[in-house]
Amino acid sequence: MKILEGLYYSKEHEWVKVEGEKVYIGITDYAQNALGEIVYVEMPEVDDEFSVGDVFGVVESVKAASDVYLPVSGKVLEINELLEDQPQLLNEKPYENWILIVELSDQSEINQLIDFKEYEEFCKSESH
Amino acid sequence: MKLNVLFLGRCEYEKALKIQCELLKKRQNQEIEDTLILVEHTPVITVGRRGEKGHILKSEEFFLKEGIDIFQINRGGDVTYHGDGQIVGYPIIHLKSISMGIRDFVTNLEKLFIQLINEKYHIVAGRDPKHTGVWVGEEKIVAIGLAVKRGVTMHGFSFNVNTNLDHFKWIIPCGIENRGVTSIQNIIGKNVDFHIANQFVLNYFLEIFHYDTYKEVTLDQLFLEDRGGDI
């Protein structure tokens, strides 16, 4: 399982990359592997606003449709339209294919996320 | 680990859906333990997230006349049919409680039915690499379509025991063309005991997912469990 340094993680298996007030959000390698072959990604609209923990979309694999949660509060700046036609990109390169870009509304929420080491430990404890 | 089992009997889809949603919330809030709902639906068509209306082959007027409802719902998958003689199961399971991801959960559901169908009805069933579910030859006998919300599963499986297979002609099941559906009755040539089939499903579910015991619960009990946990 691949975990990248320098990203933040949530316990719902999302990764977060921070660039100032802009954050990129995707699902981790662990998540894509647990879901199986992804066939459909439902995304919010640009300008939608969410609070931390809100459901922002659905990732559907051949096995099931799973809700995905926003690890930080903010407004959607961009969605990854590539995923509409090529949802399998989330399986192939989960860290290169973000799902959405959000404008952070509360910078301090980043501190609630975990770093790659903590996330690694968390995944181990999940898959005992 | 204990599993609650709720037998709803013959029940309309809409009512069962409401119960599922209520129990999902309760499971998310840790107010109840893992629960398996087993039910036989009155005839109904449901359309999953990937569903296309083109996979429903009859007109709205037809379904209206027949008294068949159509529901667009949030499970994985495409179009399916539920009706008499079919065992429908809705596992309201916290995946963490059984230490499993959704993919493994579905794989185990498939395994459950492959074993059950083989051991209890002496029919060889298997998986299809492309299509979720359990197949006998080219025909599907168990459909699976789940949703996961805050770590808890909903929707589930439908197992054709004595199902009227003609009703599947109303749709392209799961959007897969050129593949049929079958049932235990269809394969062995006679009606099988539906009650016993339900018991088989429950027993195999307990075994595959490693529950030590189960408790048959009523709706009232589940909604009273709010405060005290175990009754």
What does this structure look like?
The complex is a heterodimer of chains A (128) and B (231). Chain A is α+β, with helices and mostly antiparallel strands. Chain A has one domain (8-118): OB fold (Dihydrolipoamide Acetyltransferase, E2P) (Beta Barrel). Chain A has helices at 29-35, 82-85, 89-92, 116-126, and strands at 8-9, 14-19, 22-27, 38-42, 49-50, 55-61, 64-69, 74-79, 100-104. Chain A has a six-stranded antiparallel β-sheet. Chain A has a three-stranded antiparallel β-sheet with strand order 4-6-7. In chain A, strand 6 and strand 7 (64-69) form a beta hairpin. Chain B has six helices and eleven strands. By secondary structure, chain B is α/β, with parallel strands linked by helices. Residues 227-231 of chain B have low confidence and may be disordered. In chain B, strand 7 (134-136) and strand 8 form a beta hairpin. Chain B has one domain: Bira Bifunctional Protein, Domain 2 (BirA Bifunctional Protein, domain 2, 2-Layer Sandwich), CATH 3.30.930. The radius of gyration of chain B is 17 Å and the shape is globular. Classes of the chains: A alpha+beta (128), B alpha/beta (231). Strand 7 (64-69) of chain A pairs parallel with strand 8 (139-149) of chain B.
